[in-house]
Amino acid sequence: MTNKFFSSSANATDSSNTLPPLWQDIVDLVAEIAQVPAALIMRGDSKCMEVLVSSRGDDNPYHVGDKEPISDDLYCHHVATTGLPLHVRNALQQDEWKNNPDIKIGMVAYYGIPIHSPNGECYGTFCILDRKERYFDSKITQLMSLLGRSIETSLTLQDENQKLSQEIQQRDHYHSLTNLPTQSQAQHAYENKDYRHLTILFIRNIQAYDIRDNLGLLDAQRLTKVFYQQVKAILPSNADIYYISNSEMILVQETQKGDDLQGEAEQLASQLHALFSHPIALNKKSITVPISIGCAFSYDKEFSFSELLDMATVACTQGTSTGKTFHIFNPEQQEKRKHYYEVTQQFSSAFANSEFYLNYQPIISALTDEVVGCEALVRWKNAKFGMIYPDEFIPLAEQCGAMNPLGDWIIDEALRCLHGWQKEQQPNPDFYVSINISSTQLCQDDFADKVIGKLKAQNINPSSILLEFTETALLSNEAQVMSHCQKLAKAGVKIALDDFGTGFSSLSHLHDFPIDVVKIDKSFIFNLNKSQKSSQLVKGILSLGKLLDLQIVAEGVESQDVCSHLQFLKCDFMQGYYWNRPMGQTEFEKKYIITAKKK
Ligand code: C2E
Ligand code: CA
Ligand code: CA
């Protein structure tokens, strides 16, 4: 006979894995108070009753997992089917219970109550058994019903917990605004799927933040919804769409034939671009959503879903940073980015391990051939990557926020060195140190004050330093940089415009900013004797310098010929490998400071 009272999902072994911990204490307690060898919580299904929890004690013949086949003679089966408590004082003396299988193991007395699941169906029983005739008084039966309710409460709690975790899982797998499956769902689906060839297209709304800031949060969310709906509408049957963020989604395309994955992806990408070439209408506004698509392929299960997703994400970023709207994952580019990332990770330990140091390159007067100063150039000897040059690490330091502390250290170190030279070796009193300043440093509100403070602290005459800015740095935040320049100029600090000729080479910048020195970029100096255009440009800058009362430095002088040519053109100062490459502090001192003192 099938037992309609047990819930259909009843499976004693499954639920026994997650039994509430209090149940063992409950059966132990009741066995002790009732002074019986066995107190049990039983779970049943249509075939048998199973011991879920059994009181501890040497005299207890029931063990967790023991099963009794369903029969009408079974005490617990009776309780479960009637839904009522059952009290058997002595089965041997009661005809209806004389075939009860528990008699065989000596259990003749029984008291049991039904336990209900939260949905009202019978879950099982809670019972006590004894070897001798027993009358279980009301104290015991009341205690049993009280503890029975506590067992039912813990079942309800367990049920609610289960529902809650299912809800959380659902929320994790579906995005509430777009109702689209999320990345975790994709991961779950494809990590367990036997796919052959897979393509992921990573689509990003590259103006999402601007759009959100201009439309407001609410309309931006509405737009997100439309954005997803539009993509969903043109999706081929073998592709799935997943939500990544409010501005990003992925399309996963699965194919059996791998001969034209790229062609298919390109076709889909051009469909998407065509779709978003039309503005989206929203609340009487029409909004253009520019998208960038990154793409990666896995032929014959070459990559796992997670690896492929990472590659498509990187491809999208690679594309966006190079202004492309469709970009296929490029492993070399990724290697480079990875290297940059790893270098960036080294900054904090580099400071701690004092891996940075300064090199100095002499600056020569074209008139007297004497050294008038030097340019401080930062170097990084890293424990992991060895020598790293500033052209590589300065832009990375700017991006990751390490430039300002590094810039401060460079200024401090250059001033410390200059202070030492001035104090101990007293070179030419006009000797100066030129320090390169990055645009990031100029964005600090207190930049000028900080430099002036540092000069005071080291007791250094402000005219003994020259700060080199590029034109790009001047323009990065024109008003703020102008205020810094004016403060610095007022304090007596000299300012140079570096790499002149490569950027805007604007006359108005030379006029508007308080600039003292212009450094002609080395690319023109290299070609001075080779290219008519370079020599015209150098001549032009030199005559402009005379006109605006600026001093001109030519950098990148590598030969006697170029040096003579610059002297002929009446250039003021020169710098280059012809005299020396940038060198360490001690070598520079030996070569230029001590010699200068002797003279
Ligand atoms: P820059 O400011 O234009 O510095 C001149 C660069 O040209 C230096 O390269 C120098 O070693 C090199 N150079 C000098 N004479 C010659 C020559 O005759 N031939 C050739 N081929 N090269 C010559 P370095 O030290 O590798 O620096 C590269 C760039 O990195 C610098 O260009 C500057 O933009 C940046 N940098 C270097 N040190 C610092 C620093 O302390 N702070 C900041 N913010 N940037 C720095
Ligand atoms: Ca420079
Ligand atoms: Ca330069």
TrEMBL record:
Positions of the GGDEF domain: 196-331
Alphabetized SMART domains for the sequence: EAL (SM00052), GAF (SM00065), GGDEF (SM00267)
Protein name per UniProt: Diguanylate cyclase
Organism this protein belongs to: Vibrio rumoiensis 1S-45
InterPro entries according to UniProt: Cyclic-di-GMP_PDE-like, EAL_dom, EAL_sf, GAF, GAF-like_dom_sf, GGDEF_dom, Nucleotide_cyclase, Rev_trsase/Diguanyl_cyclase
PROSITE patterns: EAL, GGDEF
GO molecular function: cyclic-guanylate-specific phosphodiesterase activity
Domain EAL as annotated: residue spans: 340-596
